[in-house]
Design goal:
The chain is mainly α. It is built from nine helices and no strands. It has one domain (2-190). The protein is globular.
């Protein structure tokens, strides 16, 4: 079962979900809000919201800057900071290209990651869970309530993270609260 939990944790890890969401927003987002070449939007979103943060995590693990796939909260700030810097770069690019849909998903990643970094001083919230529920919330906000069933994807991620002893139930719930509420507020204010 551990292999299944690890597989779920990988295919629904925050940077991987960021790649999926970048592609969805770039190719299916409302034309007036994408406002740039969709292939370029998908590439840039995938690179700065997904590939760079994922590569950073892998490199931190490889060079022993973090000691596990579920590092102690003291090991996490460097990953957050690099991710936030990459998200800011995406935000600037999408602002320049006037791509509102890609700009807002970048902003949501910045705000959720920043709040998660602050919460990390007190508790190791589940970034996996926040990284699934936040993007789903963005998709539901932009494309409508018909996508609410996507929230079911949070359940296997939460369960896998608990079974792998990467997080407690409280840390998973904290990921749900931060990922959902911060993303929803970002879209409510900015959309």
């Amino acid at each position: 079962m551990k292999k299944i939990y690890n597989f779920i944790s990988f295919i629904l890890a925050a940077p991987i979900v960021a790649i999926y969401v970048s592609i969805i927003f770039a190719f299916f987002g409302p034309e007036q809000f994408v406002n740039m070449n969709r292939i370029v939007a998908a590439f840039l979103g995938s690179l700065f919201l997904g590939v760079i943060p994922l590569t950073t995590t892998v490199m931190l693990y490889k060079f022993k800057a973090i000691n596990d796939v579920a590092p102690k909260k003291e090991d996490r700030p460097m990953g957050y900071v690099v991710g936030i810097m990459s998200f800011i770069f995406a935000l600037i690019l999408f602002y320049y290209f006037d791509s509102r849909v890609m700009f807002l998903i970048s902003l949501a990643y910045i705000v959720v990651s920043s709040v998660s970094l602050l919460v990390n001083k007190f508790s190791k919230l589940s970034v996996h869970v926040a990284g699934v529920i936040g993007p789903i919330t963005a998709l539901v906000y932009v494309f409508g309530l018909g996508l609410i069933p996507l929230y079911v994807l949070v359940l296997p991620v939460a369960y896998a993270r608990i079974k792998l002893k990467a997080h407690s139930l409280m840390e998973v719930l904290l990921g749900v609260i931060v990922g959902f509420s911060v993303t929803y507020l970002t879209y409510f204010i900015m959309w």
